[in-house]
Structure formats: structure tokens, C-alpha cells
Design brief:
Layout lengths: L11 H51 L3 H8 L11 E6 L10 E7 L7 E7 L2 E6 L24 H9 L9 E11 L2 E11 L7 E10 L5 E6 L6
Antiparallel strand pairs: 1-2, 1-5, 2-3, 3-4, 5-6, 6-7, 7-8
Length: 229
């Protein structure tokens, strides 16, 4: 005869039932811990990204615009040169879309190459010099910017340029700007750098957007988004 064991009478039914409950509780606890850990990591990532974005925005807001520097630069040039601005340019921005190194270029009849240049860094005057080469093909008093006609400052120029539809899928990392007369129209030229797709730590120069400094109208878009591959 085969041996039969009554697990119910022996108390094993209750034990097995308890074992199943404990196992289910452990599985539920483990799953809950994994979910909590995942959510916590996601929260940390989002918070870090938000802080970085806030930091970039704060830095951009702290930086003076190009046109705001003209009034200050006037204090460092001779009275015969004040307000005779023929151009403004920046260096490539760093860790932000807003450049913090700018050059205000004046027409100066007495200088060898007819220009005086005031350099700014983070809104502070860094240098004043007479460049040994002209920043433009030819400089005279006809190249002067009509400051009263200029309605678009550098911050708006950046926003207009980066809003080009062709850039909607790209991550724009840096800009560089020039303001000068083109065909008697004060014109912003905004150069853009975007994150590379295969090497996200690197940037690619994807070209320029030119726009009127009078009304913000895009005059020319010379973009090459294929360079991000």
C-alpha cells in the first residue's frame, strides 16, 4: 500500500498557505522597490536637466545685449568717434546660446585702418585698440549703422534664427553674431552650431541665418543640417 500523508491534518496546509502569502508579499515588495528606484532615478535625471536649463537661461538673461554695449563703449572712444558704429560682432558662445564676448567697431577717420574697436567680456570692457586690419572690405562714414532704425537686438536675433523650421529637430548648442550694413540694410548674421547625432558631445557648424535688424525678417537662410551626421 502506498503511504498517504494528510497535509491538512499535519498542519502543512496552513504552512504552505502562509508560505505562498509570504512569497507574494516579497514579490510585491521587490516590484514596488524596483518601481520606486526607477521613478527616483527618473526624477533625478529630470531635475538635473531642469537645473542645467535654468542655469543656461539665467546666464543668458545676465548677459548684456549687443546694442546695450554701444552706450557704454561710447565712454571709451573720442568725441569724434562716439556713435559712429560700423559693426558689432561676437565670438562663439560657450555653454549657452548667448555670446559673452563682443566687439563694438567704430569708424575712426584718424586710425590707420579707419576703425577703433572696444572689446567686452561678460559686459565688462576688456580692451580698446585700433585693429591692424579692417574688419570689413572697405570702411568709411557711409558704413555707419543707423541705430535709430535698428529694432532687433542680439537676443531677439538669436530667437528668430533658432526658430527656423529646418532646425526643429536639432539641438542648437552655440551661436556667433555679426551686425553690419548689407545693401544699406542693418543686418544680423547668426551662425549656428548643433549637436552631432553620432557624437553628441561634439558640435557641428550648420551655417548662417541672416535677418533684418529693422524688422526681424529673415533675408537669407544658408543652413546645412546634414553636417550633424
Amino acid at each position: 500500500m502506498g503511504l498517504r500523508v494528510n497535509f491538512s491534518r499535519a498542519g502543512w496546509g496552513k504552512t504552505l498557505s502562509s508560505f505562498r502569502i509570504v512569497s507574494l508579499r516579497e514579490e510585491f515588495y521587490t516590484a514596488r522597490m524596483k518601481t520606486t528606484t526607477t521613478l527616483f532615478k527618473a526624477t533625478i535625471i529630470l531635475a538635473t536637466a531642469a537645473l542645467c536649463a535654468f542655469g543656461q537661461t539665467a546666464r543668458a538673461e545676465d548677459e548684456p545685449t549687443a546694442l546695450s554695449l554701444i552706450k557704454d563703449a561710447n565712454e571709451y572712444v573720442g568725441k569724434d568717434v562716439k556713435d559712429k558704429v560700423v559693426g558689432i560682432r561676437s565670438e562663439k558662445s560657450v555653454a549657452s546660446l548667448t555670446p559673452n564676448i563682443w566687439y563694438v567697431v567704430y569708424y575712426d577717420h584718424d586710425a590707420t585702418f579707419k576703425t577703433t574697436e572696444v572689446k567686452y567680456g561678460a559686459g565688462k570692457k576688456l580692451d580698446l585698440k585700433h585693429p591692424m586690419r579692417s574688419p570689413f572690405a572697405y570702411v568709411n562714414d557711409k558704413n555707419l549703422l543707423d541705430q535709430k532704425a535698428i529694432k532687433i537686438d542680439s537676443d531677439k536675433a538669436i530667437k528668430i534664427a533658432t526658430a527656423e523650421p529646418l532646425l526643429s529637430k536639432l539641438t542648437i548648442r552655440a551661436t556667433q553674431l555679426w551686425l553690419e550694413n548689407v545693401d544699406n540694410v542693418p543686418t544680423w548674421r547668426v551662425r549656428l552650431w548643433a549637436q552631432k547625432l553620432r557624437h553628441p558631445n561634439d558640435d557641428a557648424n550648420i551655417g548662417d541665418v541672416s535677418l533684418s535688424a529693422e524688422d526681424g525678417k529673415v533675408l537669407k537662410s544658408d543652413l546645412h543640417i546634414d553636417r550633424v551626421d
